[in-house]
Design goal:
This protein is α+β, with helices and mostly antiparallel strands. The protein has 4 helices and 13 strands. Helices cover 19% and strands 44% of the residues. The strands form 3 sheets. A 7-stranded antiparallel sheet has the order 1-11-8-13-6-3-2. Strands 7-12-9-10 form a 4-stranded antiparallel sheet. The protein has a two-stranded antiparallel ribbon with strand order 4-5. The N and C termini lie far apart (34 Å).
Length: 193
């Protein structure tokens, strides 16, 4: 997403529409719905969005990473295309977090855990807006990225580390595929070089 003068909305944020064809969007949403989706858990609190992880799972109650089942072929294919979109070497995106946001579900202000580096997200279903904010001496700077159905975004650098993001509660069902690479901290936690 760029502004009127072709500058990025935020340094380190790249987005594109129509990453996923319409027919594939339906298939991906249906595949997500077949998974054992569980309510998001954070330090004993249970959220409205339903999630499932592949490759690596981050346990918010323990604050730790753990290996989980590998990405199925249908998801690995999407990951490979997402890596090409983000200009990342094959195999970089090791974690997939699949989320279904039913009506009333959203996600509060946060930065992704420091165990992860690159964050690539794919939106399916209802359109949403990813809100960004960064604290200043006088309040917050704010930006908004529209998330159209079948679109993709890549957070790295300043957009990833200096800005928090959130999604307001949804009025219609939305699915997302969030793919992440491990940071140095995450690779150490997983015992990887």
């Amino acid at each position: 997403m760029r502004d009127l003068f072709d500058a990025p909305l935020l340094p380190g944020l790249v987005a594109a529409d129509d990453f996923v064809p319409v027919a594939e969007e339906r298939d991906l949403a249906a595949a997500i719905d077949t998974l054992d989706l569980l309510p998001f858990r954070f330090q004993g609190w249970e959220g409205k969005r339903l999630t499932h992880s592949f490759g690596i799972h981050y346990d918010f109650d323990k604050g730790a990473l753990a290996a989980t089942e590998p990405m199925p072929d249908w998801l690995a294919h999407v990951r490979d295309r997402a890596e090409r979109f983000a200009g990342l070497p094959p195999g970089t995106l090791r974690q997939a977090l699949l989320i279904r946001y039913d009506p009333g579900a959203g996600i509060g202000w946060h930065r992704d855990r420091p165990h992860f580096e690159h964050v690539v997200g794919i939106s399916l279903g209802a359109e949403a807006a990813m809100r960004f904010r960064r604290r200043t001496d006088s309040g917050f700077l704010r930006r908004t990225l529209p998330l159209p159905a079948r679109g993709i975004y890549h957070l790295h650098g300043e957009a990833r580390y200096d800005w928090e993001h959130s999604i307001a509660p949804m009025e219609e069902t939305r699915w997302s595929i969030t793919l992440r690479s491990l940071s140095e901290r995450g690779r150490t936690a997983m015992g990887l070089p």
